[in-house]
């Protein structure tokens, strides 16, 4: 089974680190993994021009093509976003909007895949839950089954407090516990439903 991870940060720092840890664990557990980093990528915003509805592809030609390929080939999808202005990153917002072009090809194109959310905030309560809810909403809109870490500390997904420092996120033991709990459930769902 294949898992596609999206690091929706403009930097390869704390969010990239956490997603890399998740992908390493999945690889150890015999999942094929692929990771896409938004850092230095050209991902333009959706113009909602409806070109995709008639032509079955997006009118914009940029690095979003890599995301389309990853989403289509994956059984599981892990979205990792830094918290920006109390929610998801602008990169992730663009990716979510541009996924509309896949739905124009086939309404059910992503249906039945398993989705997991990771949110990394500079503060402990900087907007991680808001980001998780946006990610879960995205999953539901596209028929992707959202998975949390369960009702004891990872209710919506894996949440981290980076304190805007790579060293600090490496020492966020509570965040790592939430990641491990969420990964267990994610793998359980992949093994049961895919």
Question: What report would you give on this structure?
Answer:
By secondary structure, the protein is an alpha/beta fold. The protein has helices spanning 14-28, 51-55, 64-73, 90-98, 100-105, 128-141, 166-170, 173-193; strands at residues 2-7, 32-37, 76-82, 114-121, 145-147, 158-161. Strand 1 (2-7), helix 1 (14-28) and strand 2 (32-37) form a beta-alpha-beta unit. It starts with a strand and ends with a helix. The model has no long low-confidence stretch (mean pLDDT 96).
Features:
alpha/beta; six-stranded parallel beta sheet; single chain; 194 residues
Note the gap between the termini: 8 Å
Count, helices = 8
Q: Unreliable segments (pLDDT under 50, ≥5 consecutive)?
A: none
What percent of the residues sit in helical stretches (DSSP H or I)? 40-55%
Shape: globular
What Rg, in angstroms, do the CA atoms define?
16 Å
Strand content: 15-25%
The quaternary structure here is single chain
Would you report the number of β strands?
A: 6
Order of helices and strands: EHEHHEHHEHEEHH
Structural class: alpha/beta
Average pLDDT works out at: 96
**Biggest sheet character:** 6 strands, parallel
């Amino acid at each position: 089974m294949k898992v596609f991870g999206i690091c929706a940060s403009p930097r390869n720092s704390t969010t990239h680190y956490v997603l890399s840890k998740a992908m390493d664990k999945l690889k150890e557990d015999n999942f094929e993994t692929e990771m896409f980093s938004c850092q230095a990528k050209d991902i333009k915003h959706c113009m909602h021009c409806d070109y995709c509805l008639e032509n079955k592809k997006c009118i914009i030609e940029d690095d979003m093509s890599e995301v389309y390929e990853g989403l289509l080939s994956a059984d599981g999808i892990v979205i990792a976003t830094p918290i920006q202005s109390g929610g998801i990153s602008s990169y992730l917002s663009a990716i979510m909007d541009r996924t509309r072009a896949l739905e124009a090809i086939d309404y059910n194109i992503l249906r039945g895949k398993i989705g997991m959310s990771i949110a990394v905030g500079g503060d402990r309560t900087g907007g991680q839950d808001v980001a998780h809810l946006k990610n879960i909403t995205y999953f539901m809109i596209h028929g992707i089954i959202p998975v949390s870490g369960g009702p004891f500390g990872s209710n919506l997904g894996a949440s981290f407090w980076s304190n805007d420092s790579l060293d600090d996120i490496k020492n966020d033991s509570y965040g790592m516990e939430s990641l491990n709990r969420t990964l267990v459930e994610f793998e359980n769902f992949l093994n049961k439903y895919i």
